[in-house]
Write a structure and sequence with these properties.
The chain is 64% helix and 2% strand. It binds 3-hydroxybutanoyl-coenzyme A.
């Protein structure tokens, strides 16, 4: 389902080339169909309403339909969604930093324009996600405050440095690739606003992954030094990318409940395996190697065997002790403070417009009386 998204340019166009986007489009079609169906158990407000509401919620989940902001939902479902969506939004926003670092140093105007568009997309993704979290009752201000005071997490991957231009390629291919494998199933998440945001995000991420793949493809066919630079970037980003999928299933706190509620559709380990299977095939097209001495095809499992990332390192990075955690948060805090005047100006303008509209309404009422 997720493999074969990239092929040798000589063979592009053969079956299997657009599997990822097909999956997003099929989720989008299902979303429209789900909106047209109704759930038989309808809501109730009389005595015993709590049980009826819970029954309705369970029936919606069982029928693979969407919970919408107006619907009753268990408190833990709401809390779990806010946690995941907020962490996801923060990741998109902090994720602008490692690549933003290369905008002024991109090797050509074309590369610079592409990178600018990509980093700008990440900002947009953060905003869709904060908006989705707002439908659950958490304001964006509140969530941003939790991020900049270090009380809410963001993805471990963005705490690694981008040392050279090939890192931009490796981020696109591996980090955006892992993000897609993780996020395509979220297009089928049971919470409507999150699922809808994910459809748009995944379509854009697919372009991001392609631009990274293309950078590495070009470098791998360049001079010996460029090829070495590409391999070095893949060597450094491989294990942190595997760790993006989270702890192994045996240590995952939220997976079981989250999958029962159809927020997550696959476990961390299942998605990690899909990513490895996808990359093993794509690396051979790139002509680069994956830095894993244990990587080999397992005929019996129909999947690649691979070496697990260092989960002790993942937890250290999550707890704030990665190579760039402090720098990332410091930059984010600074940008937030520097942007205060823009927020103030926006609020002043909105207040002025609201006062004008109220004045106009009052004048019209007097005239009509
Ligand atoms: N980085 C930081 N924290 C992580 C993590 C990681 N790679 N993996 C797991 N964690 C945290 C969890 O958030 C959880 O912490 P909490 O209890 O304090 O909230 C804890 O470790 C235990 O992990 P679980 O497996 O129980 O957590 P989840 O069930 O939530 O699974 C997840 C983790 C797979 C990341 C899931 O939350 C998810 O799918 N989130 C949505 C996607 C997302 O946030 N991706 C981040 C990258 S976005 C991105 O890459 C942008 C793109 O443009 C490149």
């Amino acid at each position: 389902m997720y493999g074969s998204d990239f092929e040798d340019p000589e063979t592009v166009g053969q079956p299997g080339a657009s599997a990822l986007l097909d999956e997003v489009e099929s989720a989008e079609r299902d979303l429209h169909e789900a909106a047209a169906r109704t759930v038989a158990t309808g809501g109730s407000t009389g005595p015993g309403a709590d049980a009826a509401l819970q029954d309705y919620f369970d029936a919606v989940i069982a029928a693979d339909q969407k919970i919408e902001p107006r619907d009753w939902m268990p408190g833990a479902y709401r809390k779990g969604l806010i946690r995941q969506i907020a962490q996801h939004a923060h990741s998109e926003i902090i994720g602008m930093q490692p690549e933003g670092n290369w905008i002024t140093r991109a090797p050509s105007l074309k590369r610079k324009a592409i990178l600018l568009a990509k980093v700008q997309d990440e900002a947009g993704h953060g905003l869709y996600l904060y908006a989705a979290a707002e439908t659950l009752g958490s304001s964006r201000d509140e969530l941003v405050e939790l991020l900049i005071t270090g009380r809410q997490k963001y993805s471990s991957i963005f705490n690694y440095p981008t040392l050279n231009w090939a890192d931009v390629g490796a981020i696109g291919w591996l980090v955006d690739g892992a993000a897609i494998v993780n996020q395509v199933p979220l297009c089928r998440c049971s919470y409507g606003p999150y699922a809808r945001a994910m459809i748009r995000i995944c379509k854009e991420e697919s372009f991001h992954q392609r631009q990274g793949f293309e950078i590495l493809y070009t470098l791998a066919r360049g001079t010996a030094a460029q090829r070495q630079m590409a391999q070095d970037a893949v060597d450094r980003w491989w294990y942190p990318s595997l760790a993006m999928f989270g702890p192994p299933d045996s240590d995952s706190t939220h997976s079981e409940q989250s999958m029962a509620w159809k927020i997550k559709r696959f476990s961390n380990d299942d998605l990690r395996q899909r990513f490895v299977d996808m990359c093993a095939q794509q690396a051979s097209v790139l002509g680069l190697s994956i830095p894993d001495p244990d990587l080999r095809w397992n005929e019996e499992r129909g999947a690649w065997d691979y070496r697990q990332p260092d989960y002790a390192e993942l937890f250290r990075v999550i707890k704030g002790d990665g190579p760039c955690n402090r720098q990332r948060l410091r930059h984010r805090r600074q940008a937030h403070e520097d942007g205060a005047w823009v927020r103030d100006a926006g609020s002043a303008y909105a207040a002025k417009q609201a006062a004008r509209r109220a004045g106009k309404r009052a004048t019209e009422q007097v005239a009509a009386a």
